[in-house]
Design goal:
This protein is mostly beta strands. Helices cover about 10% and strands about 40% of the residues. The strands form two sheets. It has a four-stranded antiparallel beta sheet, with no helix packed on it. Strands 2-8-7-4 form a four-stranded mixed beta sheet, with no helix packed on it.
Length: about 160
């Protein structure tokens, strides 16, 4: 019986080691060239922000109005890199698993535009809903909050 426990423990440890290690850099993503990332808050004390990228959204909030519970709705937040260097979006995270973002994974050159699409699944949601979406990029400040809203109503009370 002890040999079975020992074998099971060793097998579990091997599985954890094999599945826990990831290869390929940043969670499987490609690495970013160092010359693209410029942090003005570095140890050198140089805080010149004039050469940084800047993310400028057309709108930072969208209200879907009244939607029926169970509907999935989406909205695309358009933005422009109004800065002087390539814009990198590192991550777009949401405040709820019912909200799914889609965003560009490649650099957006200065002057170019991009879009972040947000899909909201209202299944199991009722009443007024506000979902915050955090956009992390190589701008200063490095986070921008965009938001969606909706009033989710029961299927029988949509009028």
């Amino acid at each position: 019986m002890n040999i079975i426990k020992l074998t099971s423990t060793i097998l579990l440890l091997v599985i954890l080691l094999v599945t826990g290690c990831r290869h390929g850099g940043l969670n499987g993503r490609e690495t970013i060239p160092a010359d693209v990332v410029n942090n003005p808050n570095s140890a050198t004390g140089n805080n010149d922000k004039s050469t940084l990228p800047a993310i400028k959204f057309d709108v930072t909030e969208h209200d879907f109005g009244r939607i029926i519970e169970g509907e999935t709705v989406s909205f695309t937040f358009n933005f422009k890199n109004s800065g002087k260097s390539d814009l990198l979006i590192a991550e777009v995270s949401t405040s709820c698993g019912c909200t799914v973002p889609s965003y560009p994974k490649t650099p957006i050159r200065a002057g170019d535009s991009g879009a972040i699409k947000i899909a909201f699944n209202s299944n199991g949601k009722r009443g007024y809903q506000t979902k915050n979406i955090l956009v992390v990029s190589n701008t200063q400040p490095n986070t921008t909050v965009i938001r969606i809203k909706a009033q989710v109503v029961n299927p029988g009370t949509e009028k």
